[in-house]
């Protein structure tokens, strides 16, 4: 017998946001029993739905079932009357009538998840992730993260960027160095992608403007609050640019759109997490060496590393810029050539510097970007000067051979950005299932 499926919607239960339309009526609503608070003669039953927690009232006079049939974390379908209630912040309450228990837990969670905060260590928070993510505030983190990516996609699509999906198993590393995962690929040596760098540059020659939001892998041996071995990178690349400042303008506009989108899409979560979004009118930019000198002078610190920022310097620079400009963001430009990849374009008249930048936010670098070398001979000469084996990069150099426009791009760490936006010091708090030097499950 052949059954035809036509794609019609079959909603059997109402959504929480629709309840106000049903005051005085009976409805069916599904979810999980989040918490049961027994009172004298009645009980409050909190139902966790996909996005909100709905307060229901159990009374023996109204309900056709025993309260003992309900168990916290049971999945249920409830029949209830939507009754007007002025004392409720929603203006109504659900008076329970019937229940269909769809499943019940085999054992109670070892972590109490239905309080305002999950009162446990970060280690336990991550060890019991399938349970602790059910906490109202914990899951709100990732609705905010979704809102960030919605804003990014909206902005990029409206600005003629094409979304692409590049390989995560690659022949050679984009950045090289020791922090690269090697894998056995049918007897050949391959790597997990550190970045979609090579591919997004290639695709500039196809679509002019491209972006990708996807996983990247770094074999970082640092077990710190800012490092992960797998994270989500927001990568974009754009062609026919005149200078790398266009990239910073693009990112500024993109972040402005992200903040607008969060206000529209994630207001309940922002209020629940007590988040104040930063105002982004403009973002200050300062050259690398000048930034180092500013911090040294203001905080009486000796400059020990002239090639990169120390984590403490990033914090102090953001603190100083905020005092001077009111901005929680700052672009640091013209990083030393020694600290940038081989494809970074060197500054004209100053080959020891690159046409590159980092974006720091609330004391932490969240973005690295810059203009790329786009001519074949210039790229080949730089690789030879650095002692690189150019034969390993034939497929990458192919795009240069066949002609490329002036181009550049950036990569933003989604988890780092989310963590800083929400005020978390540890990036793992903004990572669904973190992968670091000691964690491979859950």
Explain how this protein is built.
With 442 residues, the protein is of the alpha+beta class. 28% of the residues lie in helices and 26% in strands. It is built from 11 helices and 18 strands. It has helices spanning 122-127, 129-132, 136-158, 197-207, 245-265, 267-272, 288-299, 311-325, 376-385, 394-401, 414-422, and strands at residues 26-38, 42-48, 53-59, 75-84, 92-103, 162-163, 169-170, 182-185, 188-192, 209-217, 230-239, 285-287, 329-333, 346-347, 350-354, 356-361, 364-371, 407-413. Helix 3 packs across helix 5 (245-265) and helix 3 (136-158) packs across helix 11. The model has no long low-confidence stretch (mean pLDDT 94).
Question: How would you sum up this structure in a few lines?
Answer:
It is built from eleven helices and 18 strands. By secondary structure, the chain is α+β, with helices and mostly antiparallel strands.
């Amino acid at each position: 017998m052949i059954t035809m499926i036509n794609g019609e919607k079959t909603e059997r239960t109402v959504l929480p946001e629709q309840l106000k339309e049903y005051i005085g009526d009976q409805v069916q609503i599904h979810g999980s029993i989040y918490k049961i608070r027994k009172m004298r003669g009645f009980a409050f039953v909190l139902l966790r739905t996909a996005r909100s927690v709905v307060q229901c009232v159990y009374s023996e006079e109204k309900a056709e079932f025993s309260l003992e049939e309900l168990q916290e974390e049971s999945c249920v379908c409830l029949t209830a009357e939507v009754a007007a209630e002025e004392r409720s912040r929603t203006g109504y309450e659900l008076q329970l009538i019937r229940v269909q228990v769809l499943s019940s837990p085999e054992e109670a969670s070892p972590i109490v998840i239905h309080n305002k905060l999950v009162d446990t260590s970060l280690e336990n928070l991550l060890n019991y992730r399938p349970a602790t993510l059910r906490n109202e505030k914990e899951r709100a983190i990732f609705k905010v993260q979704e809102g960030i990516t919605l804003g990014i996609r909206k902005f990029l699509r409206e600005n003629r960027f094409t979304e692409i999906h590049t390989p995560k198993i690659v022949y050679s590393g984009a950045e090289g160095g020791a922090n690269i995962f090697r894998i056995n690929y049918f007897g050949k040596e391959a790597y997990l992608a550190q970045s979609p760098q090579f591919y997004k540059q290639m695709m500039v020659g196809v679509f002019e403007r491209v972006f990708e939001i996807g996983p990247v892998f770094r074999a970082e041996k640092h077990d710190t609050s800012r490092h992960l071995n797998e994270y989500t990178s927001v990568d974009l690349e754009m062609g026919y640019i005149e200078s790398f400042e266009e990239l910073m303008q693009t990112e500024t506009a993109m972040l402005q759109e992200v903040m607008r989108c969060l206000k529209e899409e994630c207001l309940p979560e922002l209020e629940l997490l007590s988040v104040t979004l930063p105002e982004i009118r403009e973002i200050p930019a300062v050259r690398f060496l000048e930034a180092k000198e500013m911090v040294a002078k203001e905080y009486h610190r000796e400059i020990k590393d002239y090639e990169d920022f120390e984590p403490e310097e990033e914090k102090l620079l953001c603190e100083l810029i905020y005092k001077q400009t009111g901005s929680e963001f700052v672009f640091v430009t013209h990083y030393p050539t020694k600290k940038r990849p081989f494809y970074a374009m060197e500054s004209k008249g100053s080959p020891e510097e690159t046409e590159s930048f980092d974006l720091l936010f609330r004391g932490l670098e969240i973005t690295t970007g810059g203009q790329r070398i786009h001519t074949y001979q210039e790229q080949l000469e730089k690789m030879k000067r650095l002692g690189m084996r150019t034969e390993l990069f034939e497929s990458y150099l192919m795009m240069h051979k066949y002609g490329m426009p002036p181009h550049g791009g950036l990569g933003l760490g989604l988890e780092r950005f989310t963590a800083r936006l929400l005020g978390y010091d540890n990036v793992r708090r903004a990572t669904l299932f973190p992968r670091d030097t000691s964690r491979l499950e859950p």
